[in-house]
Amino acid sequence: MNVRYPFGKGQRPHTLTQVALQRKPRWHEVAIQGFLFFCGALSILTTIGIVLILGKESWLFFRSPEVSLREFLGTTKWQPAIGQFGIWSLVNATMMTTLFATLVAVPLGLCTAVYLSEYASDRVRSWLKPVLELLAGIPTVVYGYFALTFMTPLLRAIFGRDVVDIYNTASAGIVMGILILPLITSMAEDALSAVPHSLREASYALGATRLETAVTIVLPAALSGIAAAIILAVSRAVGETMIVAIAAGSGPAFTFNPFKAAETMTGHIVRISGGDLSYNSMDYNSLFAIGLALFLITLTLNIIGRWFVQRFREVYE
Amino acid sequence: MSTLSSPMVCSLPEGDSFHSQVAARHKKGALWLVIFQAATLVSILALTALLYNIINQSFGWVAVRNQVEPETLAVEGTPLEDLSKEQLIAILEAHVSQGVMRRLESEAPFSVRSREDVYRLVEERVIKPEILRSWPLFDSLLRRSAIQKEVAEEFPGARLQFRAWVNRQFLSNPQSATPDKAGVRTALLGSLWVVGLTILVAFPIGIGAAIYLEDYASDNVLNRLIQTNINNLAGVPSIIYGMLGLAIFVRGLEPITSGAIFGLSDPTTANGRTILSASLTLALLILPLIIINAQEAIRAVPRSLREASYAVGATHWQTIWHHVLPSALPGILTGTIFAMSRAMGETAPLIVVGASTFIAHDPTGPFSKFTTLPVQIYQWTARPQDLFRNIAAAAIIVLLVLLLALNAAAIILRNRYGRKRREG
Fold it and tell me: Which residue among A8, A14, B113, B145 is buried most deeply as judged by most CB within 10 Å?
């Protein structure tokens, strides 16, 4: 066999004694490592940026004489035009849509996850999974269109046109439930599949049926993973914007009636910033105060969710 | 054990009661299986309803009323469609005022206009079709005679036409205030510009961060913080990124993002609400996704490959550049394409960053004002008129086809990569 040496023509291969074996400083390697570190650190900068920006503009908002933190957190009217900033009307609408989304997605998602992990054959799974992935990949603005042109007319046909407004939180919430359904399903299924097979076999050996095994053995064992799935899905629903911006209504309203229009936190941010917005106005600053509240809510939910995920990983690895 | 020796209280059923209890348990199991299956069916139903709804809205009958019927424009028995360019110009001259003719001539002289162009002008200026009402597809198919009767009663002089709202004109027309002339060209180009620039920024940085975390970072507090932080950033609502972009890119870096310091934009109208600002915002948004996916791809490269490279004397970076990255590339690309489709469908941050509500000019560069497909869909959906719902549905079809093509590319890449690995 011909061996090609990576040396120049006519040059003899070096002998080992001629090669200096000590570590050489390689400056471009150091430079590359520096750049790579910068790329990684950029994420920290992003977080710092988010916190600083939201914090700074909110600080300007709360420092102004027209508003106080007590009014912000203690009242239920949001009308910037007449200087009323009570965030509860927005938070209430967000909670309503999130509640509906959870009511739709949690039972359906859990049942689907149990079916996929405990019952479905590989063939059924191989075409059900793409359907769920498709649902997860559809842009939220399309869901918004769906809510307004399909779900709302459907609700109006069922409950009557006088009862259901054109814009309402129920329709937005239900469609949002469809949006977070694939999220809950896939995370819950991962949690269920991670339960060791020996547990199921022990249960069968004792004479339990498939349902009894699934509900009394597998589900409790995967509980922390399922809890994480639900919490992360709720966080997603709280931050979801386009569905509520299109279908939930455009005007803050403090109402517990799911068939009335009410604007959520995200919906309000999108509507106000979509119009002509002058910097340093109360409107502009108030958006960042809402954004800060939104950020804190979702961050808390995400941290709790992650904590659950880590717990459930520790059990089975 | 003591319990074994002492007599146990046994309440297990025996005989007939045993059999009936087992039967009841199996019945319960079968019932719940049906419930589980029904729940699974709901997601399929939802997907079907969604697609049905969109297709239903983008095709169907429309009632059109022409200001001048095309039949009356026939010259000596030759129908309008077959007339020559000169005859069409004559018709145009006969129906339009001198001033309009002069304006058209100054836009582009008639001598250089094509026959199709003149025909389009005749349609636009003389026939002036106006869509009075539209019906969804399934109504059109099932209630045809009822619709015909309705049109005859409500819109005398109007005629029914089958219209596909998503058509070639829809793709090539710019934005317009009248729904039947409006198109998605501006929005489509805007989307491509924004997503292209986003990937250009996010791809190298995302992969750099992934390499750092997988291959360089030692297990210390700072690096663990970076990793946790990236995971948390992936869960931040997209609208928060929009606000970050508004404050930093649109306002803070306005001289750069408006192109003013490069002298590239008109300083009287320039502000930071440009394609560049939107792209930088979306880049921050999809960075965590790209990093997490790339990390997985890099982690999947076997250790033996790295060790073989080190063994023949390659440096750390040489190993990564020549061995780890090429081997992880298909996985990285797949993840990047998924991130791209996320950016393609993103709406809320772009509205916050300041996508224009109405622009009829194509974007020409990173410092142009812009609108994108999802933003356009949002604006059309928010209008109360029915016809805007039709074009919103048509725009959704364009968007979904784009996304489908992107995802198909990713899946093909993944499958090919999988096969290669098995062969090798």
Answer: B113
